[in-house]
Specification:
Chain lengths: 137, 176
């Protein structure tokens, strides 16, 4: 097999892996008939942390608890909960940790602002360093 | 003056570094998450009972005494490991132990309790894991201590060890 053919086979395989990924986690019996509601459920699931694997969303995780939570989100949506109410329901039980993106709160200020503080410190240091070296020459 | 200004970022950097270092040194297990239900009322739920014909209604089971809530299953080896400690708690006066049988086979659970002893005053069946979600459970075994007012005072994730048993005992004395 020449290089071109090998490349094409590998590319096809990678693309197949890439696009088929999400379809493996969500099982057919979980999917809601109403596409709009299903889309809402998927969007919420992408922001909810799998408490077992911790670095994956429940949308990506095949852990049993992730499946239970995906089903629960769909139940709540069918019960008429809006997105905010679903998030509140989950954070009331599992805390803010269940959200993949930490909320902007007084307790998370450092988390949000420290990167900017360090960035400014970096600029400050580079600026002073350059000033010093300019003086030398 | 300029030198003094240049020191400021270094001090901030060392301060942040010392916080990270402190977090590394203190004894903490990052896989164990704090419960959001601590110092809150127990979740209300109804379920089928094991060994009893009547429905398990949480509002009838809690209040007036200290309750230990233990999420367990026969397929969970750590649950078997901690069972002796749960039995030891059941020998104490004025403490009620409620078991939540998580996604299990009732026949197997009855056999399990016959072989190892039944420390639970009542057992609710959580077929689909919904009760566990109500309690913020993410891996069994998990044990909660509920005070006589129905407020959750403590949560332990994982099997009860000797160290945890002593810790819960101290807490029980405090609540009494």
């Amino acid at each position: 097999m020449n290089i071109k053919k090998t490349f094409l086979v590998l590319l096809t395989f990678s693309l197949f892996q890439f696009f088929s990924h999400s379809s493996f986690t969500i099982e057919p019996d979980e999917i809601l008939k109403d596409q709009k509601l299903e889309l809402r459920a998927r969007n919420i699931s992408k922001n909810i942390r799998c408490m077992v694997c911790q670095n994956q969303s429940i949308d990506d995780s095949s852990a049993p608890l992730a499946k239970d939570l995906r089903l629960l989100i769909r139940d709540k949506i069918l019960d008429g909960y809006n997105d905010k109410e679903v998030y509140t329901y989950l954070t009331d039980r599992y805390g803010d940790f269940i959200l993949l993106k930490p909320p902007f709160k007084l307790s998370t200020l450092a988390l949000w602002f420290l990167p900017f503080v360090f960035f400014l410190i970096g600029i400050f240091l580079v600026f002073f360093h350059n000033k010093k070296s300019k003086k030398k020459y | 003056m300029k030198k003094k200004i240049a020191i400021v970022p270094s001090i901030i950097f060392l301060f942040v570094l010392s916080i990270f270092f402190y977090l590394l040194l203190i004894e903490r297990d990052t896989s164990k998450l704090p419960s959001n239900l601590l110092n809150k009322n127990i979740p209300q739920f109804e379920a089928e009972s094991l060994l009893k014909t009547e429905t398990f209604i949480s509002s009838n089971e809690f209040g007036g005494e200290i309750v230990l809530v233990n999420f367990f299953a026969t397929w969970c080896q750590p649950c078997r490991d901690e069972h002796n400690y749960i039995r030891r708690f059941s020998n104490k006066k004025k403490i009620k132990i409620i078991g939540i049988n998580y996604k299990d086979d009732s026949k197997k659970t009855i056999n399990w309790l016959n072989n190892l002893g039944n420390p639970y005053s009542s057992i609710a069946l959580d077929w689909n894991g919904k009760i566990a979600i109500e309690w913020g459970v993410y891996g069994i075994p998990e044990t909660f201590v509920v005070n006589p007012d129905g407020i959750i005072k403590y949560r332990h994730v994982g099997p009860i060890t000797n160290k945890v048993y002593n810790k819960i005992n101290l807490l029980l004395e405090e609540i009494k």
